[in-house]
C-alpha cells in the first residue's frame, strides 16, 4: 500500500476518534467547541484525485454525524469546504498552488494561517447555520462560528506544530 494512502487512512480514523471521544465533550461557555477533524480536509494532498477527495470529505462529515446524531450538518459543511478548497488555496497561496508545487508545511505562516482560518470560518458558519436553520438565530450562529472558529484554528495550528517534522 502506498505510504500516502496509509497516512491518510490513519489521519482519517485518528481524527474521527479524537473528535468523537475527546473534543465533542468540550463545550466552553456554550459557544466554544473545537473541530479538529477538519484538519483531514486541510491536509489532504493537493494534487490527488478530487472526486475521491469529495467522497472522503463526505464520509468524514458523515462519520461525525453518526456519532453526534446531528442529521448531516457535518457532512454538508465538509463537502462544501472540499468543493471550494481549490479556490481557497489559490486565494491564500497564489501562484504556488497554480503550479502544484505547494506543501503546507513549507508555506509562509501568514498564508497558511489565512487558508486555515478562512476554511474553518466557512465550515463553521455552514455547520452552525444548518444546525439552527433559522435567520432569527443569526447572532447565535455568528457567535458560535467566531468563538469555535478561533478555538479550532488554535487547536489546528498547535497540532500542526506538535506533529510537524520541522519542529522535532
UniProtKB/TrEMBL annotation:
User: For this UniProt entry, which segments traverse the membrane?
Assistant: 12-32, 38-60, 72-93, 113-133, 145-163
Q: Which keywords does this chain's UniProt record carry? A: Membrane, Transmembrane, Transmembrane helix
* Top-level lineage group: Bacteria
The molecule here is called Rod shape-determining protein MreD
Q: Which organism is it from?
A: Salegentibacter agarivorans
Amino acid at each position: 500500500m502506498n505510504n500516502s494512502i496509509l497516512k491518510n487512512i490513519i489521519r482519517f480514523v485518528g481524527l474521527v476518534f479524537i473528535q468523537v471521544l475527546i473534543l465533542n465533550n468540550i463545550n466552553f461557555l456554550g459557544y466554544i467547541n473545537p473541530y479538529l477533524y477538519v484538519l483531514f480536509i486541510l491536509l489532504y494532498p493537493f494534487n490527488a484525485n478530487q472526486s475521491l477527495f469529495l467522497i472522503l470529505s463526505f464520509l468524514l462529515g458523515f462519520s461525525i454525524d453518526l456519532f453526534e446524531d446531528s442529521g448531516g450538518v457535518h457532512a454538508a459543511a465538509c463537502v462544501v469546504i472540499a468543493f471550494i478548497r481549490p479556490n481557497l488555496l489559490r486565494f491564500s497561496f497564489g501562484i504556488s498552488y497554480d503550479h502544484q508545487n505547494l506543501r503546507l508545511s513549507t508555506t509562509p505562516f501568514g498564508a497558511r494561517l489565512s487558508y486555515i482560518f478562512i476554511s474553518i470560518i466557512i465550515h463553521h458558519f455552514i455547520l452552525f447555520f444548518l444546525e439552527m436553520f433559522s435567520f432569527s438565530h443569526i447572532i447565535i450562529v455568528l457567535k458560535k462560528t467566531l468563538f469555535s472558529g478561533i478555538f479550532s484554528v488554535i487547536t489546528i495550528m498547535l497540532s500542526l506544530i506538535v506533529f510537524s517534522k520541522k519542529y522535532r
